């Protein structure tokens, strides 16, 4: 059933070979209170994902499927930006799902005309009793959520989460197709225009994080590497090895419950150093191409 409120809105779900999860993502979105005039665009290159979107569209015509050419998420988003009707865009992924009331909570800050972009709050559904699962909880709770809350309270800039965020469509019309972290790029572009970033902690999005170290490295090189690309201004951003060490060390150590989690925390410090070294080598020094850096992460599906 398509629930309603009142505002012009386009929700964009990007997906690739996510036929097992995209249905859950779509249904979690359309089951919420939404504006009277809304649409949901599923952007994907593959037949299996498109078939799931088509099945939902048969029941809810506000859902449409756009077929991109498989050149990556930034190209898929550029297609969505051209097709979108909404004044506000909500962006999320086909392998995550939003919590109850997430979309209204995400839209609430836009009552303030000074707000240009709003971030939701990722919550890990990975098990905390494994090392990589524990890392995900630490990074989203003691890391991202803590930093966004502090920066929001003090009026500072912060990057929105690519798992769930919304922005005024008029502020960004397209992005470079080699963007490794489009959420960071869009956040910076909107801030440069003088608009404020809002944090909506009640706009929860549930995320399964990588369960292998290889997949974890792929994901982190992709996200951290985006901030090392030339068009993202690190001076305004949240991410740098120095900033992580200064702002996050004590919070990470205090997050641990017992000796095992403390050991995992120390291993995470080493893993984050590994990520930053790889980013320096692959992104800054070798300037590897988008196609080689953007690798599929299978254990999150």
Give an account of the 3D structure.
The chain is of the alpha/beta class and 301 residues long. It is built from ten helices and eight strands. It has helices spanning 22-30, 47-59, 73-83, 102-107, 131-154, 182-192, 213-226, 241-255, 259-285, 290-293, and strands spanning 8-14, 37-44, 63-67, 88-93, 97-98, 115-124, 164-168, 196-207. Strands 3-2-1-4-7-6-8-5 form an eight-stranded mixed sheet, with helices on both faces. It is globular, with a radius of gyration of 18 Å.
In a few lines, what is going on in this structure?
With 301 residues, this protein is of the alpha/beta class.
Main attributes of the structure:
alpha/beta, 8 strands, 45% helix, 18% strand, disordered N terminus
Which bin fits the share of residues in helices?
Answer: 40-55%
Strand line-up across the major sheet: 3-2-1-4-7-6-8-5
Overall geometry? globular
Q: For the residues shown, what is the average pLDDT?
A: 90
Supply the number of helical segments. Answer: 10
The structural class is alpha/beta
Counting DSSP E segments of at least 2 residues, the number of strands comes to 8
Spans of at least 5 consecutive residues whose pLDDT stays below 50 are: 1-6, 230-235
